[in-house]
Amino acid sequence: AQSVTQLDSHVSVSEGTPVLLRCNYSSSYSPSLFWYVQHPNKGLQLLLKYTSAATLVKGINGFEAEFKKSETSFHLTKPSAHMSDAAEYFCVVSERDTGFQKLVFGTGTRLLVSP
Amino acid sequence: DAGVIQSPRHEVTEMGQEVTLRCKPISGHDYLFWYRQTMMRGLELLIYFNNNVPIDDSGMPEDRFSAKMPNASFSTLKIQPSEPRDSAVYFCASSFIGTSGDTDTQYFGPGTRLTVL
Q1: For residue A63, which of A27, A57, A89, B84 sits 20 to 30 Å off, Cα-Cα?
Q2: CA dihedral sign, ordered A68, A69, A71, A76
Q3: Model confidence over B36-76: pLDDT tens digits?
Q4: CB contact, 8 Å: A60 with chain B?
Q5: pLDDT grade, residue A96 (50/70/90)?
């Protein structure tokens, strides 16, 4: 079975500084990997998706993630944090289940951004 | 597109009462999913449908939970009778098979926050 591990439950940064949210995955074959963001009292929004094309994936709001097979990692980064980036971020891997690709969610990382 | 629509956004009920949560998927999507999110267990897939047919309900916690999809634009998740431990945020999501057969990008609704007293 596939799984993801988000290494930090909370990350705190100052506005204007870089953001790094770490994610490691376990997969027996080439996975699809995602980052979703959840703002307070909102649903989950897709930030970006990796599907075996380019290893550096660009998403919305200036976020990007790099797929590193040798490290089984898919870390999310942003060069400069904004106050509006404060939210919960989920790393997700898809797992094929009789033709359907089921999403397996990490436990989430809460990003706190201070002025 | 309006995205996935869920109602109500908040529901407060008393133990033993029936609760019905509603979802309208994105038009043209042929997969629909119900998830539950709690602090203790994170996001859990409860059930999913393909072309209105339930495919896998192994995540449904017990017989008190049931889900239906009478047509391509509407689904319900019902809890009867409700218990305090059912308190959670329930999300509906939808997806579709594109030309590549890719079904794994899911689009989530805003969720229904259920509180059972």
Answers
A1: A27
A2: positive
A3: 999 888 899 999 999 999 988 989 988 999 999 999 999 99
A4: no
A5: low
**Mutation for A interface: B29, B106, B113, B114, most A CBs within 10 A:** B106
Mark residue A7 as left, alpha or beta (left: phi above 0; alpha: psi -120 to 50; beta: remaining).
alpha
Helix (H, G, I), strand (E, B) or coil at B61: coil
Whole-number Å distance between alpha carbons of B29 and B74: 11
Q: How do residues A18-40 score in pLDDT, each as one tens digit?
A: 999 999 998 777 788 999 999 98
- Please give the residue of chain B at the shortest CA–CA distance from A88: B42
- How many angstroms separate the CA atoms of B117 and B102, rounded? 41
* B103 pLDDT above the threshold of 60: no
| Whole-angstrom Cα Rg for chain B | 14
Exposure string over A54-69, b if 16+ CB within 10 A, otherwise e: eeebebeeebbbebee
Rounded to an integer, what distance in angstroms lies between the CA atom of residue A58 and that of residue A81?
16
Count of positions (residues) in chain B = 117
